[in-house]
User: Which sequence fits this backbone?
């Protein structure tokens, strides 16, 4: 099964470019040196793109008594809110044509941070309730896009789930390029069935029902695809639990266990049980099942994304 090349949006400073207010960068080694091999980056520095210099005085989010959130430059008192809001809406509109499979934002920034950004009250006391203005526009106008902050990607489970989501979205965009058909949507759903079950079994069933009962008229496929995309991306947002993975692994093992000998069956059961107990990583039972699927030529499982969600070389299943 070939994996599509990704186009990902990214905060420019994470690429190692000196665009930060202090003239520096925040190069992220995992994104550049590991994931970067599979990615064409589309970089955006909102502060530079609204015309600010580098270096520049720092800016921050403020909320004075009951007012909305403002983006201000404390040194000068300049208010950049309208400039940044107008820019962000236009920029995100343009990004909708960029074929992005996901976006990685710089955490903590009053422009790029997607959560827990410092928000100062009228007394200059910060809380961690803010969202950067550009990030806010991105999350609002591209709700289906997988978005993460670079800091959160240090967590193995969040990282694995984000990368699973961006490859699923790349496959979705590839399907979209060929033109949506009922059979294309059915095939996409079939390939992602166990992946969905590992995240959200009820959403997996609901999506299956949506496709099975949808009107078949030519004009209705586009609406169906929009509904499917929305529910699918929502379902994949949920982090998979060890219990859910174990259920899926047992289900998949059921397709091969009758055709392998007792020793192999015991080994497979122990691998799944070892994963459930936290003794071995997910890659151990997944590789075993993948091996039997190939050896026994189990056609129904051969294309399951669950068994091959992202490039093996990223070793993401070794850490969850
Ligand atoms: S966090 Fe965003 S605005 Fe700040 S330097 Fe990085 S890309 Fe530019």
Assistant:
């Amino acid at each position: 099964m070939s994996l599509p090349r990704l186009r990902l949006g990214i905060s420019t400073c994470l690429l190692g470019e000196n665009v930060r207010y202090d003239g520096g960068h925040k190069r992220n080694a995992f994104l550049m040196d590991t994931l970067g091999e599979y990615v064409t980056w589309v970089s955006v520095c909102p502060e530079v793109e609204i015309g600010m210099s580098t270096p520049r005085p720092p800016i921050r989010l403020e909320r004075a008594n009951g007012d909305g959130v403002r983006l201000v430059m404390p040194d000068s008192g300049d208010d950049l809110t309208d400039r940044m809001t107008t820019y962000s809406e236009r920029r995100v509109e343009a990004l909708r044509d960029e074929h992005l499979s996901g976006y990685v934002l710089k955490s903590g920034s009053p422009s790029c941070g997607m959560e827990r950004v410092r928000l100062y009250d009228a007394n200059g006391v910060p809380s961690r309730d803010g969202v950067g203005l550009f990030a806010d526009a991105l999350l609002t106008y591209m709700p289906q896009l997988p978005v993460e902050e670079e800091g959160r990607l240090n967590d193995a489970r969040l990282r694995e789930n984000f990368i699973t989501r961006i490859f699923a979205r790349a496959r979705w965009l590839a399907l979209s390029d060929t033109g949506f058909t009922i059979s294309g949507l059915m095939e996409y759903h079939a390939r992602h069935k166990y992946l969905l079950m590992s995240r959200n079994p009820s959403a997996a069933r609901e999506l299956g029902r949506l496709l099975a009962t949808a009107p078949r008229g030519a004009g209705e496929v586009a609406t169906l695809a929009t509904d499917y995309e929305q529910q699918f991306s929502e379902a994949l947002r949920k982090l998979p639990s060890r219990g859910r993975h174990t259920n899926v692994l047992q289900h998949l093992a059921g397709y091969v266990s009758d055709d392998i000998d007792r020793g192999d069956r015991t080994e497979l059961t122990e691998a799944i049980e070892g994963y459930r107990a936290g003794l071995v990583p997910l890659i151990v039972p997944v590789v075993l099942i993948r091996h039997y699927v190939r050896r026994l030529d189990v056609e129904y499982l051969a294309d399951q994304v669950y068994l091959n969600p992202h490039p093996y070389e990223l070793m993401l299943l070794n850490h969850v």
About this structure: Residues 11-13, 19-20, 45-47, 106, 109, 111-112 surround iron/sulfur cluster (CB under 6 Å). The first strand starts at residue 6 and ends at 11. Residues 174-320 form one domain.
